[in-house]
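Help needed: design a sequence for this.
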């Protein structure tokens, strides 16, 4: 039997839980595992080669086993086929074994193995918009694709500090909150120009979050108004805000009600352009990218099919 589902496993996701989760998932198929083409890899170049080979062989269903970062790597490996070919023949999914697992929260996917095997066998169809971000890194123009959220400013700096913190101590889901608190006391807003569908806003920017998912940082509901398939970007923009106000709103970050603060603007749009005189930190789907003076975020013309139960 020819393989019909490409599986990429990040062996380091969730402190090594990805391989264990996959073995449990695979065992639920009663020995009929020949439908899976399984690859264990963390290297982006190697993943691109595996995906290209799978596509050439006719595989159109792709599954990441890991966290949001593994899914991010997969969607970028698939990007040439999504953008240049009929993307509606492609399907993508995530068996969540990472630390944050934010994308699946918006999709209604949990870690229950029985639930996930039901998803793999389902014939239901659901589509999601794909986001594209163009940015400069060391004066070099770059671009990436993503399904969940990209953020600039405080979000980017927090992810950078969380990465440093994880190398010293592991606090599980509290790692992001610890990194957030550490970042808060040294962070300063940056004067920026943000253009949304041609409308210009100038402000001292604390954070700009844009995407199609609701959650980032392991459950923070930064974009409560996001819908995965409505052909619009969800946008949350926070101008300079007192540090004490951020602290008293910590719990409101998790239910999305932080948006009631006067410093917060929530919008929807097709394209977001940010320009800054100073470099500001950028993160995409929980990965710290670096510092940039400009970024352009938009939706591709195409959508991708998502595994759903």
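Sure. Designed sequence:
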């Amino acid at each position: 039997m020819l393989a019909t589902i490409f599986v990429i496993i990040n062996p380091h996701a969730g402190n090594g839980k990805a391989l264990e989760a996959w073995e449990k998932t695979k065992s639920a198929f009663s020995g009929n595992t020949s439908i899976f083409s399984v690859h264990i890899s963390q290297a982006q170049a190697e993943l691109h080669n595996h995906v290209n080979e799978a596509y050439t062989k006719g595989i159109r269903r792709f599954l990441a086993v890991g966290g949001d970062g593994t899914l991010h790597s997969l969607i970028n490996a698939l990007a040439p086929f999504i953008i240049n070919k009929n993307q509606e023949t492609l399907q993508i999914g995530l068996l969540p074994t990472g630390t944050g697992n934010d994308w699946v929260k918006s999709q209604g996917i949990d870690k229950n193995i029985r639930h996930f095997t039901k998803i793999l066998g389902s014939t239901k169809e659901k589509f999601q918009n794909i986001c594209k971000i163009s940015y400069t890194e060391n004066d070099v123009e770059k671009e990436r694709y993503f399904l969940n959220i990209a953020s600039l400013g405080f979000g980017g700096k927090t992810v950078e500090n969380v990465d440093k913190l994880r190398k010293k101590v592991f606090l599980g889901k509290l790692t992001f909150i610890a990194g957030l608190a550490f970042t808060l006391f040294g962070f300063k807003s940056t004067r920026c120009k943000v253009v949304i569908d041609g409308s210009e806003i100038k402000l001292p920017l604390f954070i700009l979050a844009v995407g199609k998912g609701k959650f980032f940082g392991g459950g923070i509901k930064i974009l409560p108004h996001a819908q995965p398939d409505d052909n619009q970007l969800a946008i949350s923009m926070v101008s300079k805000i007192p540090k004490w106000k951020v602290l008293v709103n910590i719990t409101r970050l998790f239910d999305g009600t932080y948006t009631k603060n006067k410093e917060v603007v929530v919008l929807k749009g097709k394209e977001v352009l940010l320009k800054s005189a100073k470099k500001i930190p950028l993160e995409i789907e929980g990965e710290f990218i670096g510092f940039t003076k400009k970024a352009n975020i938009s939706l591709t013309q195409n959508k991708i099919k998502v595994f759903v139960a």
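Residues 123 and 153 are 41 Å apart (CA to CA).
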